[in-house]
Write a structure and sequence with these properties.
The complex is a heterodimer of chains A (136) and B (245).
Chain A: H1 2-27, E1 28-29, H2 34-54, H3 65-72, H4 78-116, H5 118-135
Helix pairs in contact in A: 1-2, 4-5
Chain B: H1 23-36, H2 94-97, H3 101-109, H4 131-134, H5 138-143, H6 157-160, E1 168-169, H7 172-175, H8 188-202, H9 207-244
Classes of the chains: A mainly alpha (136), B mainly alpha (245).
Chain lengths: 136, 245
């Protein structure tokens, strides 16, 4: 996959460079530059053909639409990856905190209920062990 | 339960009771509740005076999910939450679990530069400007996709005749399109400033560093003096010109 992306990147860079050179030729055109311009036009069409051939190999590549917003604003798309990583870490920490708080609450609740309803909690614990054995 | 505990995971205080009631209060509340509700022996939740079942009022309604306890919907009733334990939860470091530590350190450990040109340094032209300004945004490409599916053919000789151009420069409004952004100036003074800051951090007690400092201050003074002289000369010239007219 990385090779295919590198190949596409090379084709695109060559295409852009060719277009830039055409722009230089056209900006101050001289008659002797006409054959060169024709060559560049041919190179542009072959470049487009090569890029078109690459698309078949990259059908599985999925790009999140939010990255396009970063690029449209002239920002580095790696910042999107960075923001995603940071958000996922923050959410992970948040959920871990909730889980730990609920685990503590559960153990404390069972402790307190055991003091008040020892027989019922004993039945509950026995039932929980049965469920664990079934799932294991 | 310690109500003063503080978690490092965001605002978790809302999940911990600040003043938990004592166990005696709980038993008192429960006895008050059971006195009002009729006792049932068939495993079904208690029924209120209105004849409606109160799952929420029963202290052990969760036991209906346990085996050996008759379920209200019959033996084939599958209640939510009766699944087995889940291996991957939020209590695990998911970035580590999915092997993304290297990527995390790569993107979050180092400073990622803001402009798009840092990601694509080889691209010519101004690419840091927003795409909406010149209509080159990717969003517009998605909203109005171009015509695709047609085959691309090389142009023949007669077709290339359409690209014969007149000699001469193009109008000024079109010249800016292929201009390059100004090259980033390499500030040599920054190196001297870094060395200067390093020496100041070290204390600068040694004679060598103090000697370097004196040299640098002398150089700066000389530079400033020369600039002042040049400015004076320019002013004098202007005065002479105005005086002669």
């Amino acid at each position: 996959m990385a090779e295919k992306l590198e190949q596409l990147e090379q084709h695109l860079e060559q295409f852009i460079e060719n277009t830039r050179q055409m722009g230089i030729i056209v900006s101050d055109f001289q008659p002797q530059g006409q054959p060169v311009l024709n060559q560049k036009i041919h190179a542009m069409i072959t470049g487009m053909q090569e890029i078109d051939r690459c698309k078949g190999q990259l059908q599985d590549v999925q790009v999140p639409l939010e990255v396009f917003e970063y690029i449209d604003q002239g920002r580095n798309p790696q910042l999107y990856t960075k923001d995603c990583m940071e958000k996922s870490l923050a959410k992970n920490e948040q959920v871990k905190g909730k889980i730990d708080a609920l685990k503590k609450f559960r153990s404390q609740l069972i402790l307190e209920l055991d003091k008040v309803f020892p027989e019922e909690i004993a039945k509950y614990k026995a039932a929980r062990e049965m469920v664990k054995e079934e799932h294991s | 339960m310690a109500g003063d505990e503080r978690w490092n995971y965001g605002n978790m205080d809302m999940y911990l009771p600040q003043n938990p009631p004592s166990s005696g209060a709980i038993s008192q509340n429960y006895t008050q509740q059971t006195e009002s509700l009729p006792h049932r022996t068939d495993g079904e939740p208690p029924v209120t005076q209105n004849g409606q079942t109160t799952h929420e009022d029963s202290a052990f309604y969760l036991l209906k999910d346990m085996p050996g306890i008759p379920r209200p919907g019959g033996p084939h009733h599958v209640s939510p939450g009766a699944q087995g334990p889940v291996d991957i939860t939020g209590s695990v470091n998911l970035i580590q679990h999915h092997g993304l530590e290297h990527s995390f350190h790569k993107f979050c450990g180092k400073k990622v530069k803001e402009p798009l040109s840092n990601f694509l340094p080889n691209l010519p032209g101004f690419i840091d400007t927003p795409g909406l300004q010149d209509g080159s945004s990717l969003r517009s490409l998605i909203e109005k996709p171009p015509i695709v599916g047609k085959e691309l053919y090389l142009l023949s000789g007669p077709q290339l005749q359409g690209f014969r151009l007149h000699p001469g420069p193009i109008p000024e409004q079109y010249r800016l399109l292929h201009q390059q952004p100004p090259a980033k100036k390499k500030h040599k003074n920054k190196k001297h400033k870094r060395e200067h800051s390093k020496t100041s951090e070290d204390g600068g007690a040694s004679n060598a560093t103090s000697g370097e400092k004196e040299k640098k201050t002398k150089k700066q003074k000389k530079h400033e003096d020369s600039e002042k002289k040049e400015k004076k000369k320019k002013k004098d010239k202007k005065k002479k010109k105005t005086g002669s007219t």
